Amino acid sequence: MSGKPRLTYLNGRGRMESIRWLLAAAGVEFEEVYLETKEQYDKLIKDGFLLFQQVPLVEIDGMKMVQTRAIMSYIAGKHNLYGKDLKERALIDMYVEGISDLMQMILMFPFSPPDAKEKNLESIKERATNRYFPVFEKVLKQHGQDFLVGNKFSWADVQLIEAILAVEEKVPAVLSGFPQLQAFKTKMSNMPTIKKFLQPGSPRKPPPDAHYVETVLNVFKK
């Protein structure tokens, strides 16, 4: 073992992408193993690697971790991205949970039936502009600081920049009414670790295409 975290998932975004983002933002290099067949997935279950028969699987510090939220809490805590006390951690948790609700819609979008795509895209746009982004615009404006919690870079900031860029891919002008978020996006995108992750050739995955959707359906078919 090289000592680097080892990520097992498909060669695409899915539930692993937020983990890749968080590791990259923390400046941690990692290795990846890609599932391409149902047999590979079944073997992981048979070998007892997947506690709840689900990926993502992250091997880190001698542990085989599953469940996205648990993995990310561990990484955030280890790399000092989880606030200075319980109150800051509670705020980070609230913001992360909210962003996760929006990301869940984006995650499921590629699997929408063709006749539902337009409606689902409209839902993403409506939720982002009316429910989620106004919250973060207000937070940044009220405390006048660069980061969401405690004026220190945290897991919540990483989740938010990932969500902003993911929504912008589908709704390019989504930040037009959110000047604070525009400034936040610029600042985050220029942080050295995130800037590196946004460069071509990084472990960041492209938007899901038809091949990715087909692979997901094949690997996880019942």
Radius of gyration: 18 Å
- From the 3D structure, determine the CATH topology of the largest domain: Glutathione S-transferase Yfyf (Class Pi), Chain A, domain 2
Helix share, percent = 40-55%
Class inferred from helices and paired strands: alpha+beta
Describe, in plain words, how this protein is organized in 3D.
This protein is an alpha+beta fold and 222 residues long. The protein has 2 domains: 6-79 and 198-220, Glutaredoxin (3-Layer(aba) Sandwich); 86-190, Up-down Bundle (Glutathione S-transferase Yfyf (Class Pi), Chain A, domain 2), CATH 1.20.1050. It has 9 helices and 4 strands, in the order βαβαββααααααα. It has a 4-stranded mixed beta sheet, covered by helices on one side. Strand 1, helix 1 (17-25) and strand 2 (31-34) form a beta-alpha-beta unit. The chain is globular. It starts with 5 loop residues before the first strand and ends with a helix.
